Amino acid sequence: MGFLETKCTFSVLTKDLLESCNSFDCGHVDLNDFFTNDSQDYSSQLLGKSYCFLLDENPKDIVCAFTISNDSIKTNSLPNSRKKKVNKDIPRIKQFRSYPAVLIGRLGVNIKFKKNGIGKELMDFIKSWFIDPENKTGCRFVVVDSYNEEIPLTYYQRNDFQFLFSSEEQEIKYMDLPVEFELKTRLMYFDLIVLSSSDPNLKNTQD
User: Fold this and answer.
1) What is the C-alpha end-to-end distance of the chain, expressed in Å?
2) CATH 3.30.428.70 describes domain 3-195
3) Is the pTM value of this prediction over 0.85?
4) Strand order in the sheet with 185-191
């Protein structure tokens, strides 16, 4: 039983909730600004939906927050080696040019509650949403455009995300960016099939 499950309540991150809660600080200026000032615009424009966990003993404290939206992995825009990696555990008869995915647009844990295993628990919660039998649409992958910084990259790798491109140089090339371009983010993905219990022959392929 984790911190979020036993001590928090899940909620949509609405304008009214933001106005009634204490300021949310996850230690990253861009993320703080997004959740405080931009998340509602994203929601009203149907670009993404934001959620949070509130602390039960003080519902004015937002413990963590995240934003998700629809996305896809387009294999025809990947180099052959990466395309094979993405297609690896998909039966050939079901291989497509693109696969349904959910994008984690933003994710942050309040600095007041770090060191409680919340980051791992939150990611497990998000993943479980999209393999739930009640999920209304197909979703094979979770993708993220992670800040190209040590802490977020390490976080996603520890949660079994892989780089969509094998190197920054490859990502720059296949994104049609100038050679000298400095990547601020890195594309990463997680294959939800490794969590599905519907396949008796399933094995973890994230090694």
Assistant:
1) 26
2) no
3) yes
4) 8-12, 49-55, 58-74, 98-109, 141-147, 185-191, 162-163
